[in-house]
Design brief:
The protein is of the alpha+beta class. It folds into three domains: about 50 residues, no CATH class; about 80 residues, OB fold (Dihydrolipoamide Acetyltransferase, E2P) (Beta Barrel); about 70 residues, SH3 type barrels, CATH 2.30.30.140. The protein is about 20% helix and about 30% strand. The strands form two sheets. A six-stranded antiparallel sheet has the order 6-11-7-8-9-10. Strands 4-3-2-1-5 form a five-stranded antiparallel sheet. The two termini are about 30 Å apart.
Length: about 230
């Protein structure tokens, strides 16, 4: 994966990603486990670029619909004016931001590849039609800008574990029998452990917001919110 990332020089061609998905799922170690999905590989590439460069390059998909420029999109003002931005902090430059959106189909958060268009409902609520990274046009959705679009959650490094505390809202990777996707969760408790050559060994007890199920997870499955 590291070698492929270096060869791609920041891009994530669909044929390369699909080839990696097939290779992972064909290995004996994956027998009987949840299949690796395209969006997981795409997110891995995006996470690595974010860690190495400080910001990521959006994954683009071919579409007959002309996407809206990100800087002119209502998602920009929605985030720039968000109440989540602590007082005293400078407004975020959304030209350098990536976004994630919440799907109404399963309540999970997915990376946004493209904002296609937008509309204002009769109620006054703004909505955007998004193309999710790793998915085709058939999975496009209208989502509420205020409630279902936000700045992309940040993968945690080993040194970030001290900033994850009980009561924090995080995005957590959940792997089940039929799905492996990202949900919002609340940190209930933190079991601190000494770090070693493998990195952070701490364990985080989290409760998923959508079904209240609790699970103890390692740091690698935790994504922190930018405002925390």
């Amino acid at each position: 994966m590291e070698k492929v990332l270096e060869e791609l020089k920041g891009a994530s061609p669909k044929d390369v990603v699909e080839s990696l998905v097939k290779k992972f799922n064909a290995t004996p170690e994956r027998a009987g486990k949840v299949l690796v999905q395209t969006k997981q590989i795409l997110r891995w590439f995006s996470n690595k670029r974010q860690r190495c460069k400080g910001k990521c390059t959006m994954v683009s998909t071919t579409s007959n619909t002309e996407p809206l420029p990100l800087n002119d999109h209502p998602a920009k003002s929605a985030i720039a004016n968000s109440d989540e931005v602590p007082s005293g902090r400078q407004p975020l430059d959304s030209s350098e931001l990536e976004f994630e959106a919440k799907s109404s189909k399963d309540g999970a958060w997915y990376d946004v590849a493209t904002f296609l268009t937008h509309r204002i409902l009769e109620s006054g609520e703004p909505e955007v039609r998004v193309r999710f990274a790793g998915f085709g046009a058939e999975e496009d959705e209208w989502v509420n800008v205020r409630k279902a679009v936000r700045q992309r959650s940040i993968p945690c490094e080993a040194s970030d574990c001290v900033s994850i505390r009980p009561g924090d809202t995080v995005l957590c990777f959940r792997e089940g029998i039929e799905q492996a996707i990202y949900f919002d969760a609340c940190v209930i408790d933190v079991q601190r452990k000494r770090h070693d050559v493998r990195g952070c060994r701490c364990r985080f007890l989290i409760r998923y917001d959508h079904d209240k199920i609790e699970e103890r997870v390692p740091l690698r499955r935790v994504y922190r919110r930018p405002e925390v």
